[in-house]
User: What shape does this take?
Amino acid sequence: MNEAPSVLIIDDEAPILRILRTALKADGYQVAEAATGAHALTLVAQRTPDVIVLDLGLPDMDGKDIIYKLREWCDAPIVVLSARHDEAERIAALDEGADDYVTKPFHMGELQARLRAALRGRARRDSLKHFRSGGLEIDFDARTVSIDGQEVKLARKEFDLLRALAEHAGQVVTHKQLLAAGWGGTNTDTQFVRVYIGQIRQKIEADPSAPKLILTEPGIGYRLIEVD
Amino acid sequence: MLEIVSMSEKSASITALVGNSQWQRLLPYALAAGIVALATCAGYAWSLLPDARNLSLVFFGAILVTGAWLGARPALLAAVLAFLAYNFFLIEPRFSLRFAAADVLAFVSFLVGALLVGALSGRLSDRAREATSRLRDVSVLFDASRDLARALRPEEAAERLVAQIERGGAEAAVWLGTPPSHRLASYSQARRQDADTLALQVAYVLAGDGKNNGDATALYRLAIGERVLGAVALWTPRGAAPAPRWIDAMLELGAVAIDRARLIKEVAEASLVAEKEGLRTALLSSLSHDLRTPIATIVASATALEEHDAKFDAETRLDMLHTIQQEGDRLNRYVSNLLEMTRLESGVLQVNKVMMAPGEAMASALERVSGRLKERRVLRVFDAGAAQIFVDPVLIEQALINVLENAAAYSPAGSTILASVKAERGSVLMSIEDEGAGIPATDLDRVFDRFFRGRSDRRGAGVGLGLSVARGLIEAFGGEIKAISPASGGKGARVEIRLPAHANVEAAE
Assistant: This one.
């Protein structure tokens, strides 16, 4: 990216807004901020930011409604800030079109990594032929996977799932999205996803009981870690 | 529906609806004899006329009248008497009983007529009597059911049941609950001691193990389906006992009324529990948001400093450190208010009351919140003279700080906050007035409720405990706190704290 990426922070808590503004500016972002959902929608209509940080607990609007309204004309990635126990709300936000989430309290480095993954994700998904992270290499055209140069045989559904994770590398992929990727939405039992992810881990993780590549996001889905 | 265990065969065998005297029982027979006597007179007079025939029909008519009016037995008596009188007075030779073979026909027809008509009319009058008594029972039971249904507590239902049974001519005692926690709930005045001696048998009956206690008392178990509600002891007067049917119905009504009252009580208790649950949910949701915000800010700032130290200039670093400190203070305030609230409610709050000048308390509170009031003009009007208040200096300061912070949170920057201390007759008035949006009249009381927060605007406001804690503390010092809005300037709100005034130190000791 040539110019500095723009980020819109939507949060009603002044102290959080302040620290996010300071830290993200220092990280090279152009920062815009909104304290209410209404203000945020106006700002996005004027100029679409490259990425949006959205606190789900706004005073004037439900977080899900804001995502729904934003998604009507704006496809900028949305990273949601939510309380740790609001699992159902987080899933609803992701279903509504949010790209990722960070639970409060968060480490600044974690949020920045999520923002980077969100910014990269769009560009990658359009023209992804090859993926590399740590020792994992995926060739999407040849449908081959290798670990530290050793080729690993994956079943078709296993490959489809790994591909879905790799397309969103660094971001959470929900059970629902994985079901859609592997079964085209005909299957709705998340147990299948757990079983297949378990099989993939057996094949690509050095220690499948302590996964380093595919991390579990409890109750939500999985995240493929990106290592440079 | 109602399960009744009768404990006394004696009482079960009592069937009479209403007590009858000897005379009442003999009256129909006397009447029957009278009717036959009349018929005899009429028949004798008729026989004196020329061409008198079929004189037996007169007696036959008398028997039919007796049977229809008085029933089978008096009719039979009438038949026998009629035959004798007919034979004696009207059959030749007159005034002597001499039976001919042909008289048997008259006698048999008299008897058959008496039996037929008597049986028919007996059945009819039995039904009529039954219907009347049923109607009376139903209206009595209907009144009783209306009376019992008014009971809102099981004990009240038990009292009403005893009263109804007394109205029916018996005496009773009612126990509620199941062993071992059953208790005597209500009893007829004269039966207090009898009831006490029955406690053990009642326990047996309630446990479903019937046992005859050997006297004229009947014990019944009150139950709805499988649920045992209690027991009733019944003392019935000899000879004039209420019908078992009536007792069954009354006890059933009593059981229904007690169960209904019990349900009403349970519903009331359940709504109380639900209210407490609601409070807990409110606490959790406000904690989850308002405690998380300062924590999130602190963690984010600290990690940003750790990871990007080199990218920040000195001013930014200082700003972040300042944020951490400020949010730490805010967190501390929330937590200490929460703890204060818990301590107030559980009664473990240590109060060390001393005599102090009210102005001193207000001044130190203002000093403590000076940081938060930086953007407001603070006007002080202290005019308490020599009046003293008898309070815990730390806690009164906490209460005033909470009120001041509330004023700051709900008023715009640049506005004025008026803090005044005045001596009034017998009391000290401390008030804090702001120029904010004020409080709607409907919320003036609610602002002191736990977790209440004005409007939907949440920024700057805490978890909604500040004023609630302030009220708890002020009331612990024997004072009162109230909110007035709009305040003197026609806008904003004023919180008034009134505490008992003491002229000097001796007055308190």
